[in-house]
Amino acid sequence: MFNRINWVAVTVTVIALEGLGFVWYAMLFGDVWTAAYTESFGRAPVEGDMAVMRSLGMVNTLILSLGLAVLLPKLGATGLKAIKLAVMIWFAFGFTTMAIEYLYMGVGLKLVGLNMAYQLVAYLVAGAIIGWLPGRASAAPAEE
User: Fold this and answer.
1) Domain residue limits at 90
2) Would you state the pLDDT for residue 138?
3) Is 139 contained in some domain?
4) For the chain, how many structural domains are there in total?
5) Which of 34, 47, 84, 118 is the most buried (most CB within 10 A)?
6) Is 125 helix (H, G, I), strand (E, B) or coil?
């Protein structure tokens, strides 16, 4: 399964999404996110926890990128079709999973909404990168 992955696209996607996360959570919505977090959990995020969260977030980004790099080519999705399919995957799995935080866990709508919006944009960017970066040379499909 992993021998046909476009590792360049995965690497570019991880870098792009980590950059997007920095812009989203630090530059654009940092104060709003911190206030929404504090409102939801009754305390501000602890700085010591941030390094762990960022590290695990990067692993999460790698898993997302790998997942899309496996699924999109298997479904024949390139270009705009890859972006549309990435958004469908976000809606079917990301949106519904994150909605549980609001519906059953008591996380505030503002915090969940900010995180959902980031994930939607991340899936759009990932779909574009994976869908438009040239893949590996065609080879006979290996048994998987």
Assistant:
1) 2-132
2) 40
3) no
4) 1
5) 118
6) helix
